[in-house]
């Protein structure tokens, strides 16, 4: 038994020391024997003149802080006292004036909420576990509760000191008990049995299980591929799971459910996948089976595929002084003949650890055998012993020019401040005696603060700030502060009481303490959703007894089951929003079409708390259930069924050129493929290779369900012998389900794991070039960056040369910038020109150095990724560049002056604008002010209504955007920041019901109301705002390949033509400054598939010396389809036509101006008796319409009033352009779509439909008719039919150029035709 733990401090007695105050903390002690309690105390003692020796926690000339621990047995009481010994060994007792007791929690243990039944939630494959809290554990953490045994079919377990119990079906069990049966044992060896009814009662008679297949079929497993198991079940549903056992006992066995993915021909398909991690075990077994189906149990042994042998011939290290005054050095590492080096292996050294990007360090040689050449910056570290973890130990370097720093930094102050949107502002003040702060890790959030977060002061005495999201669960708060010499200090609430000075503790975040009992309401707008035909928006509501609008919970829906750590393809967790009128939290979310019938699993996150849907069910019953069902479910991602290289093998001679074709069959029989990406590489070209983005329009048969795709590239005789194969493949179906060659995901190639067709050998007969390419020149526009925060731009020009096989123009080199505090940024060069005679390639890049990057010590440069045509590669570390007399170092200074980078959303009506950036506080915050330009012609207006102001944040009160974008900048210490364009969030009037008609939406046979704000969804052939119209006949194919105009002549009875007329630039007073016509030729491409007709047009418009690219996708729909746009869903009727119009960057004459896209509609009717009329109104909360009728025919134009400008939703407007031509028989109308000032690009999305109705223009107010019509009675026209055109326009602006997508993650620029669905999902 442990005795009282005393902290003994020697002192010379003068007067009696006195206790000032004590802090207490009960903690879990993993070493105790279960019959004791454990307590920490921190005691602040006034010395009263005592001179003490020893090392207390903290001390100054008058006070000392010492920490003590107490261990005391069960059922006892203890008076807390500590003894301080003096130099003579005698002690002085200090009474802490507190008595504690060690009481066991109530026994038997009970669940926090009474659990009468556990419903079936399709498991989340992230962890395949469900939590249930044990009552009283959270309040008293001085003991542990463990699952001592599982009974029944479930494997039940928990983690020591966890609040949750987890369970999962064990496929190796033959038990048929449908209850969850387990026993808990606490620290005092007391047991409690639980026996809870579960969903297994509904699966006691599973269907016939067949085709249980393992991929790969052989036992040997490659760690680069995921293990897949599939099965089919005919008849009743079944619950299947897989147990992955690891031999050797170093890691716990893994159990996951197989989940249902599709239903074809009466059979339900199931799938399981797992990544092959062989870190702790090289072999084991896979056991798959279904509950109450012994015959389905299948056991498969597995073993790790032998890895390639890692080797090298020699290694060396050196140190070069960069700045002796700053004790700044560059340590250089070289490894010769490196082979099979595992990418991602961290480098450890006295400056910390660092994991380098993929191609970083690859020097002379080729991808299979090369010289590793790396430079790193170090500060105040004269002796460095680097090593690649577990792989390479380098000789130590010693640099006498460098002064040592052995003292860790000090934490001076640490605080939090609540921000909107469930975020907090973290402020940290720290000092260091010599080298300066390198990094601060906020452990709870795994967020690093570096010198980029320095807002005032210097690295040796500075203030750091960052904002952190509270969307995820939080535990303790801890900090690890390191200086540039990697001396670190740790302060943590978990390890002790978290003091970082005599009286300051690590502050707990001001949390909204929530227990399940605090939740008073859980509700869905709809609990039962049919996803058979369309996806659906839904709203989740939550209320709490102590709700605070400032501290919002978050919610995570397990919508996709394919292993990704995302929700709804966009968010891991979604912060809920406070509804002030309802006085509760809510979150609108989208469920994709054809999810498998199930209860959706979801988790609510509070500050430091987590509540699952399974747990909420016990409190709120059916209200907590979100059930979806589909008649034809499909959650199986696209899968490849055939891969074929043609030729299958190749021998090529010098001077020859051969085209290689890779044919791939992709199957997704229900949802259909939406898009894909493939990268074909080789042994010596695994990083770049040949990349293709593709859609079903690129398939030979244009079939999204069973598509055949061909990818071609050429190999000339100036090459290297090697094998070609697929290096990367990503596929996504129309519902967002993904497969990837990433080993943590479902591999789309799993059915072909053992196929020899996945590889193609190539033999090149030319004499091999083994000399790597070289850099001949490197030019920086500037190598010194001062303190001006607005002058950070630079340009780099690189020239490479290879005198033998020549530079490979498919490979762009990469520039890396590194600091001495382990920050790195990289940029890809772009080819400017190639000189075939000199065999020189000239590259360039332009960029902007991030704020405070390099701080006051600068940055070293490295360049890697230079290839020649024989795939010899070369890379230059900073030391290599230095030795080649090239630029290897740039100097930097800590930036001064304010800089704005982002902002919180602000209402279009009014509100508080919160801006974020750098250096916003200044020396005298009271002198700061903001300047706002509302783009109303009055220029910048000064605002001194400043609320929050810190080093990284400032808020401006009473900002009134007036539904328009506006510019803002701030002045701090007399220096203006950059200006930033703010786009307000539009307010939508939610009080109006737009489901029109009597009966509503035409009644149940014609349509239904999707929501009062979104209006009616009509069943074909009905259409219109109230489903009172119906679709006309097929308009044929009205597409003109020479231009994106649509024209149609219906039996010589009526004709219509729709066209893009022009772009106007209009100033604030409505004056047209420029008219830009679409006079340049159009490039046409038919990108139709078997399910949709779609056509792409590319052109540009010339505005002075600038060119604005234009991209138009024209889509013809033959069935009812759902479109998701700007957070709303819209429906395209059969025979409708949609334009997707994209403009690139436009050079405005002034930011006060806007653009107007003019579309023309010519509508003619052959009749002697004609009338025409014009009307307008709102068809939903986000759409407006213009209605133009000619006799019994009408033009109905619908426009969405919301756009997304620079990635933010904003209100846009539409109008009938003056001078429309209206006669009794012809209506020629120009419709203007007003595009506000934007900075990058804009996308518009109008659609057209032919409708039939029973109303006549003669009945419209203010109709214009011929004399003959006026002489006739109106009822003679009232029985006629009206044929018209429905035009809907959607404005959508995004921050990147829409017609050209730039994919930075692959360091190549790829041009891709933009489809409306791609834009919507982004």
UniProtKB/TrEMBL annotation:
Residues 1016-1027 form the EGF-like domain. The keyword Transmembrane applies. Coiled coil: none annotated. The chain crosses the membrane at residues 1281-1304. Keywords: Membrane, Transmembrane, Transmembrane helix. This is EGF-like domain-containing protein. It comes from Polysphondylium violaceum.
């Amino acid at each position: 038994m442990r005795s009282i733990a005393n902290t003994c401090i020697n002192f010379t007695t003068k007067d009696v020391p006195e206790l000032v105050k004590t802090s207490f903390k009960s903690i879990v002690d993993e070493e105790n024997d279960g019959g004791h309690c454990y307590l920490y105390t921190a005691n602040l003692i006034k010395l009263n003149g005592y001179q003490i020796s020893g090392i207390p926690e903290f001390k100054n000339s008058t006070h000392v802080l010492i920490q003590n621990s107490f261990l005391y047995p069960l059922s006892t009481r203890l008076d807390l006292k500590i003894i301080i010994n003096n130099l003579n060994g005698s002690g002085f007792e200090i009474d802490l004036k507190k008595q504690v007791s060690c009481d066991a929690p109530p026994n038997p243990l009970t669940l926090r909420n009474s659990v009468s039944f556990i419903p079936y939630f399709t498991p989340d494959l992230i962890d395949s576990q469900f939590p249930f809290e044990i009552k009283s554990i959270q309040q008293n953490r001085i003991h542990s509760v463990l699952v001592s045994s599982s009974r029944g079919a479930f494997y039940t377990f928990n983690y020591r000191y966890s609040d949750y119990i987890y369970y999962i079906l064990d496929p190796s069990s033959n038990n048929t008990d449908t209850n969850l049966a387990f026993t808990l044992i606490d620290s005092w060896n007391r047991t409690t049995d639980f026996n809870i009814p579960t969903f297994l009662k509904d699966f006691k008679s599973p269907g016939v299980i067949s085709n249980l297949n393992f991929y790969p079929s052989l036992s040997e497993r490659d760690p680069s591929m995921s293990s897949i198991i599939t099965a089919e079940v005919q008849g009743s549903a079944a619950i299947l799971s897989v147990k992955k056992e690891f031999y050797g006992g170093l890691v716990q066995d893994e159990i996951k459910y197989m989940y249902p993915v599709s239903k074809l021909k009466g059979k339900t398909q199931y799938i399981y996948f797992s990544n092959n991690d062989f870190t702790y075990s090289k072999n084991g077994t896979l056991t798959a089976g279904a509950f109450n189906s012994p015959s389905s149990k299948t056991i498969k042994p597995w073993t790790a595929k032998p890895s390639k042998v890692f080797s090298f011939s020699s290694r060396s290290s050196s140190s070069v002084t960069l700045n002796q005054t700053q004790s700044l050095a560059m340590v250089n590492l070289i490894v010769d003949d490196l082979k099979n080096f595992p990418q991602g292996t961290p480098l450890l050294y006295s400056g910390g650890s660092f994991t380098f990007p993929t191609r970083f360090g690859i020097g002379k040689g080729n991808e299979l055998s090369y010289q590793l050449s790396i430079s790193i910056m170090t500060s105040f570290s004269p002796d460095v012993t680097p090593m690649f973890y577990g792989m390479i130990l380098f000789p130590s370097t010693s640099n006498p020019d460098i002064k040592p720093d052995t003292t860790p930094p000090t934490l001076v102050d640490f605080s939090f401040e609540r921000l909107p949107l469930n975020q907090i502002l973290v402020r940290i003040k720290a000092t260091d005696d010599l080298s300066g702060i390198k990094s601060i890790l906020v452990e709870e959030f795994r967020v690093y603060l570096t010198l980029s977060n320095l807002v005032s002061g210097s690295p040796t005495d500075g203030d750091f700030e960052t904002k952190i999201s509270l969307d995820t669960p939080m535990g303790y708060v801890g900090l690890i502060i390191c200086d540039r010499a990697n001396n670190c200090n740790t302060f943590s609430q978990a390890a002790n009481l978290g003091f970082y000075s005599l009286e300051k503790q690590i502050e707990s975040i001001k949390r909204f303490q929530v227990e399940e009992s605090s939740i008073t309401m859980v509700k869905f707008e709809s609990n039962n959703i049919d996803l058979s035909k369309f996806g659906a928006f839904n709203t989740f509501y939550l209320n709490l007894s102590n709700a605070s609008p400032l501290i919002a919970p978050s919610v995570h829906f397990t919508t996709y089951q394919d292993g990704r750590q995302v929700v709804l393809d966009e968010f891991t967790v979604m912060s809920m929003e406070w509804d002030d009128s309802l006085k509760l939290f809510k979150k609108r979310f989208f469920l994709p079409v054809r999810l498998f019938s199930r209860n959706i699993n979801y988790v609510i996150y509070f500050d430091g708390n987590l509540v699952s849907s399974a747990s909420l069910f016990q409190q709120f019953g059916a209200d907590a259930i979100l059930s979806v069902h589909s008649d034809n479910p499909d959650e199986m991602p696209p899968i490849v069924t055939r891969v074929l290289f043609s030729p299958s093998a190749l021998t090529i001679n010098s001077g020859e050129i051969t085209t290689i074709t890779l044919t791939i069959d992709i199957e997704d029989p229900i949802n259909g493929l939406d898009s894909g990406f493939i990268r074909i590489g080789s042994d010596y070209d695994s990083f770049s290779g040949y990349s293709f983005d593709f859609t079903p329009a690129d398939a030979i048969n244009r079939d999204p369900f069973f598509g055949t795709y061909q990818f071609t590239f050429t190999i000339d005789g100036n090459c290297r012998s090697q094998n070609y194969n697929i290096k990367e493949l990503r596929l996504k179906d129309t519902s967002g389900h993904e497969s990837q060659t990433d080993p943590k995901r479902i591999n789309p190639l799993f059915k072909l794991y053992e196929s020899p067709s996945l590889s193609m050998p190539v033999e090149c007969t030319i004499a091999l070039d083994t000399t790597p390419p070289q850099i001949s020149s490197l030019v920086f526009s500037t190598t010194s960056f001062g303190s001006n925060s607005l002058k950070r731009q630079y340009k780099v020009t690189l020239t490479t040369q290879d005198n033998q096989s020549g530079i490979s123009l498919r490979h762009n080199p990469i520039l890396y910038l590194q600091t001495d505090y382990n920050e790195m940024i990289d940029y890809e060069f772009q080819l400017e020109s190639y000189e075939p005679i000199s065999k020189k390639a000239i590259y360039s890049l332009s960029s902007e150095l991030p704020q405070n990057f390099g701080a006051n010590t600068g940055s070293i440069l490295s360049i890697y990724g230079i290839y020649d045509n024989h795939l010899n590669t070369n890379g230059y570390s900073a030391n290599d560049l230095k030795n080649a007399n090239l630029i290897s170092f740039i100097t930097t200074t800590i930036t001064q002056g304010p800089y704005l980078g982002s902002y919180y959303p602000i209402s279009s009506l009014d509100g508080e604008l919160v801006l974020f950036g750098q250096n916003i506080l200044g020396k005298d915050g009271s002198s700061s002010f903001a300047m706002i330009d509302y783009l109303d012609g009055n220029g910048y207006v000064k605002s001194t209504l400043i609320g929050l102001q810190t080093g990284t944040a400032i808020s401006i009160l009473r900002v009134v955007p007036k539904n328009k974008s506006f510019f803002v900048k701030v002045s701090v210490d007399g220096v203006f920041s950059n200006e930033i364009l703010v786009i307000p969030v539009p307010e939508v009037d939610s009080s109006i019901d737009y489901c029109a008609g009597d009966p509503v939406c035409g009644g149940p046979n014609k349509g239904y109301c999707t929501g009062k704000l979104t209006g009616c969804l009509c069943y074909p052939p009905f259409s219109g705002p109230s489903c009172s119209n119906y679709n006309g006949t097929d308009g044929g194919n009205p597409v003109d390949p020479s231009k994106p105009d649509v024209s149609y002549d219906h039996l010589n009875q009526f004709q219509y033509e729709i066209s893009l007329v022009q772009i106007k630039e209009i100033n604030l007073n409505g004056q047209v400054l420029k008219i830009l016509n679409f006079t340049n030729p159009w490039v046409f491409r038919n990108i139709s598939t078997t399910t949709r007709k779609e056509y792409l047009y590319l052109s540009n418009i010339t505005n002075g010396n600038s060119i604005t690219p234009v991209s138009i996708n024209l889509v013809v729909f033959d069935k009812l389809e759902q479109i998701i746009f700007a957070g709303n869903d819209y429906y395209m009727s059969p025979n409708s036509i949609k334009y997707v119009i994209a403009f690139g960057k436009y050079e405005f004459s002034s930011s006060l101006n806007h653009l107007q896209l003019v579309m023309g509609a010519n509508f003619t009717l052959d009749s002697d008796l004609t009338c025409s009329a014009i009307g307008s109104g709102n068809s939903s909360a986000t759409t407006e319409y213009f209605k133009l009728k000619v006799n019994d025919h009408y033009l109905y134009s619908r426009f969405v009033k919301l756009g997304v400008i620079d990635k933010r939703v904003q209100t846009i407007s539409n109008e009938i352009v003056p001078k429309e031509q209206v006669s009794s028989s012809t209506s020629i109308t120009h419709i203007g779509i007003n595009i506000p000032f934007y900075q990058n690009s804009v996308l518009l999305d109008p659609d057209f439909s032919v409708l039939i109705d029973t109303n006549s223009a003669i009945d419209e107010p203010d109709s214009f008719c011929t004399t003959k019509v006026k002489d006739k009675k109106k009822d003679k026209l009232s029985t006629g039919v009206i044929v018209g055109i429905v035009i809907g326009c959607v404005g959508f602006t995004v921050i990147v150029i829409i017609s050209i997508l730039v994919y930075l993650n692959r360091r190549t620029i790829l041009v891709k035709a933009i489809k409306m669905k791609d834009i919507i999902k982004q």
